[in-house]
Amino acid sequence: GSAARDAAVRALSGGSVEMDSDGEGARIRTPDGTVTVAGPRGGKLPPGFPANVPQYPGSSVVHSVVAEDAMGVTLQSPDSLQAITDYYKREMKANGWKEEGAIAMGESAMLAYSMGGTTVNIVISDTGDARMITLGIAPSGDTTK
Fold it and tell me: At 13, which helix (H) or strand (E)?
């Protein structure tokens, strides 16, 4: 149960666990910072998600993770891997992001973008019935781009 989970997290991290009242999320506090893990949030992106990183049209939010200076969101879509890849290549460029890399590997694709001091990594994978889209946003450490 929750007592065993809390004890395990404290033992591994030296932190504590705080459950959201709706039961769909957890907030983990450690000496190094706080991480919030959430379920679908009613299909909404987490608070603070950058407006210039689009949610794929018609996709649903599977879960999100928000840390002090980074966040990740996993989306699900019935559309093809190619359609999703093409969308992000087009829309990220249109929103001012610089493409740092793009790799297609059979049933998945990885795209990397930067702007200012932020990096966005997009991983699109085919799970058979649907495509999972993971958007990772973090500081790049390089503010010259």
Answer: helix 2-13
What is the spatial distance between Cα 27 and Cα 56, in angstroms, rounded to a whole number?
26
Helices (H), 23-128: 81-94
* Cβ 76 vs Cβ 133: under 8 Å: yes
Whole-angstrom Cα distance, residue 128 to residue 5? 32
Tokens of 88: 């992000």
pLDDT in tens, the chain (145 residues): 556 655 555 555 565 555 444 555 666 666 666 666 666 555 678 888 999 999 999 999 988 888 888 899 999 999 999 999 999 999 999 999 999 999 999 999 999 999 999 999 999 999 999 999 999 999 986 544 4
Tell me which residue of 44, 59, 25 sits closest to 132, measured CA to CA: 59
Q: How far apart are CA 50 and CA 30, in angstroms?
A: 25
C-alpha dist (Å) from residue 71 to 38, 81, 83, 139:
11, 23, 24, 10
Q: Is 98 helix (H, G, I), strand (E, B) or coil?
A: strand
